[in-house]
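re: that complex we talked abt at group meeting.

here r the seqs, copy pasted straight from the sheet so there may be weird spacing, ignore it
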Amino acid sequence: MMDIAADDDLYKAIILEHYARPPHKGPLADHTHYDEGINPSCGDEVELFLKVVDDKIEAVNFDGVGCSICLASASMLTKLLRGMSVEEARKFRLAFKDWITVRDPEPSPVDLDELEALGGVRNYPVRIKCALLPWETFEGALRKQSPN
Amino acid sequence: MTIKSLSRNIENDFPFLKGVVYLDSAATSQMPAQVCEAMSEHYKLGASNVHRGVYEWSVRATDRFEDTRKKVAEFIGAGDERECIFTGGTTDALNTVAQSWGETNIAEGDTVVVTLMEHHSNLLPWMQLAERKKAKLLWWEVTDEGELDMAQLPAILAAQPKLVALTWVSNVLGTINPVESLIPQLKEHGATVVLDGAQGVPHLPTDVKKLGADFLAFSAHKMMGPTGIGVLWGKKELLEAMPPCRFGGSMILSVRQDRVRWAELPHKFEGGTPNISGVHGLGAAVDYLQSVGMDKVRAHELELTTYAFEQLSQLENLIIYGPQDPAKRSGVLSFDFHGIHPHDLATLIGREGICARAGHHCCQPLLKKFGRQGTTRASFYLYNTRADVDALVAALKKAHEVFKEVL
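got the structure back, here u go
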């Protein structure tokens, strides 16, 4: 039998890989920005830690508990936004949001890279907010500069 | 759908269940054709508001409305139908008790007891009231087995609570609380007891005299009726002493510029035009359940729950929360399977046609006790069969295939 995960319309191998082995998980001690996002319907919680220096995202980590879609999306975020300017990252976030929330999306103006694998959630509309939670939390963190 | 333990074949009443495995009746139940018909008749034969109209349609609507009140009273063993208030549902009923009885009877320093297995709807009204009144909130803990911690009972009684908010059946653990033995003890120590019957009344024979609580709340949509309608039953002397808390039409005796007199029970608590077709639907749902027999409903669900325990326990790494003896529980099964997140698991089994719920089930403090954000929950009603359980087990095995590499 083939590897079911590989041809699953939702649970693609790259999603399960991020879920099982996220490269940037855990608190970031010297973060400059922080926020916590909650999905009230399932109780999932995602924390984002950003280190922004001279308007550049030098580091970004996540922590928390959630489903594979939510945590894989968070993990991809930490990989993709690292090194971007705050403005670039904001544009990227909006492009991803536009792309994932429409039924038949136009090609995205930014290179979504691994995030393309999350496109399968369109077949499971209630799961779109799982994929978006880390990204909403990212915007929340940018707006809420942490005290340290 | 042939259900041996039921007295008759109910398959034709739920044609839409063919090809679907509906395991979410604890959230909302399916409605038989008879209930739909009773509701639509209100509109199809000419709608009218209830009470006060003198023309025929209004008389018909009012008679049917008040007949349902009698029917509901009889269904729950209430001696007087005026003790049955129609509400928007369980949440509305419980908030009515908190706003009316609670506002009048709870004072600073009083103790209010809530159990850790309450649904948020029998929790938040009391937490809010306690905060408003500066009353003490005492939590009745739950054991690892998913039962109320009886070791704590002496301390609960010693605290002489003014109010105890208690659920009959847990919507997460399925636990049937021993309310008939607990409530007399609580009352002997001066407590008023508010029983959440949302998961009890639809599944167990109900007799408010035996239950012994002061208030009982339940919803029509969990017992084959429509959404937006429910019942608050309360002891007459308590309801009579309580002030109304929703003001408007229908709930007065007379209004003058200098004086207002409230209507008698039950109308005092039914301000505004009620959900008339909803009440007709509730009446038909009660008729339906009685035609089957609540003892039969319970026997069927117990048989199914026992079978589900047998089948699910053959799966590796499957944990069912709550009492492990099916006789101590209703047909609600919350479980963990290999630690797969409930949303992932419910999505995966959903693809196999299984309708199950995932999340915290509006019981976050309870879930936290079990160290979980949420669970996957399957719940049964009288239209479920062993084949549904088999389909659930097969779907779980398939879900495991998807996640096995990353577990």
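couple things i noticed - The longest strand of chain A covers residues 44-53. The mean pLDDT of chain A is 91.
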